[in-house]
Amino acid sequence: MSQFGNHDDRPTKTVELSRSEVTHVVMQIDINGQGRLFGGRLMEWIDEVGGMTAMRHSTHEVITASVDNLTFKAEARLNDMVVMIGKVTHVGNSSMEVRVDSYRENEIGMRTPINRAYLTYVAVTPEGKPIRVPYGLEVNGPGEEAEWQGAEKRQKLRLNRRKEAF
Description:
By secondary structure, the protein is α+β, with helices and mostly antiparallel strands. The chain has a single domain (about 15-135), classed as Thiol Ester Dehydrase, Chain A. It is about 30% helix and about 35% strand. It has helices at about 15-20, 40-60, 140-165; strands at about 10-15, 20-25, 60-70, 80-90, 95-105, 110-125, 135-140. The chain has a 5-stranded antiparallel β-sheet with strand order 2-4-5-6-3. A two-stranded parallel ribbon has the order 1-7. Strand 5 and strand 6 form a beta hairpin. InterPro entries: Cytosol_ACT, HOTDOG_ACOT, HotDog_dom_sf, Thioestr_dom. It comes from Candidatus Weimeria bifida.
């Protein structure tokens, strides 16, 4: 393992072990007046995938603590398949950052990126109290290292915004 990732006595899981992938077909109820997928519906699906990914990693219930980045790159329309892939990028004491990439997939399996989001989840007890994530994250390769470093930067920015009430 590299200098990034788990730095304590917890066992680790790889990024791939907690990966989640979900596909939705855009239905009539999911589209706005312009025939495009509602951004809010996509955000709901992203939170669903992110939560599953965090639950897989932590083996606990989770709550959504924040959405740090949500960038829309393209649209999805009626009958499009939307594929979302969640990966853990960082693990703290009780929190985990998850990256969710969303794609429009055509009939031959070609994917066009439509969104990337970073969300933070907190592992909780059945009573809703934060609990330590029992697994650290095994970070392998430059891509996963860059994600870990990016997560730490986003965490610092979040803390600064909270301090400044911004």
